[in-house]
Design goal:
Blueprint (H helix, E strand, L loop, with lengths): L1 H11 L13 H7 L2 E7 L6 E9 L7 E3 L6 E3 L20 E3 L6 E8 L5 E2 L8 E5 L2 E7 L6 E5 L4 H22 L4 H13 L7 H9 L3 H11 L8 H11 L5 H18 L17 H23 L2 H14 L3 H4 L6 H6 L4
Parallel strand pairs: 4-5
Antiparallel strand pairs: 1-2, 1-6, 2-3, 6-7, 6-8, 8-9, 9-10
Amino acid sequence: MKTCTLLLALLLRLPALADMAPGFDLRSLSWRSTHIVLAAREPGSVSQFKVLECWKGDLKKGAMLNVRGLDFELLPAKEKPFDPFNNISLRANDLSLPGNVPFDRVMLFLKRDPSGDWTSDEEMKISIAWSRDTMTYAFQQMMNPGPRLLAPTGMTELALRREVKQMCTLQNHFLRIAALPDPKLRADSLFYFVIDERHYDMHKELDEAVTSCGKHGIDLLLRILRTDTAQNIQLHLLQELYFKWREESCAAFTELLKMETAFWNEKAPQLKAGWWDEKSSHPAPEIQYLRHRNGKTYYICAFAMDVKCAEAKKAVEEFRALWFSYPQLYNSHASNQVTQTLNGKN
């Protein structure tokens, strides 16, 4: 129960963002689909397709597919050429096709459902792209809130095919590494996958692979968390370290909190009162970095306080003494999460 409460407290302190409606995500679809094809729609049908090329999987050219979930609403055709950014009527219709869009040459990102029917890992309407002239199109949410519109992907059909093939190669390489029998070798080999922030689409598989490495998985996460590498995923790695290895993570969080103590002990004397509240819309890189580092410190401090081992308790008291010795740290801004955590207000 205490662990669940801590997680909820941490999540509540993340910035509140309006949820984006899911749209076409080429990397994620390429990773999670078992079959990816370039296909031609059969005349008069919205669900029957003939395979022209198979980019992933074992489907043959000429194979016929029945794909569910593509019953688009067709809007009245316009006399002018289709332009998704100027078609005003389209803006009020989520996942609707203008009537003057050819629905004949498409890229389908597929997998079979338990009954054997063709479907997708995502909603089928966002698991399809259209090829027209030199550009491909797919559904994206252009404004939030707002409907998902048919918009250019920024890639030609050839470029999209190349990206799919690259993701397939990457996936095969990852699967070979994840199957390595030596957990230390497996953890070492996963390093570049973990630090590559583009691999958000494979976090679930990555987390499972890292966890399977046991104590070598902890060593891998520490190797990254000791540095500023991959800053955008470090909070995720801290959560993984705590929630996957809570009983074994005492030494890790003790070390990390000591690092934070050393960092702020060096940095605090250089900070001026009010440094956090720089009003510029483009704060100096140093201020941006310190704000990010403060978030990392908050997570480390909260987790170190919760693992409840003697070493971590001592590290927390040393950190607390430092933090409250500098007003520019404990009083840096109104909602100082580290200060509130140390005061037991989380």
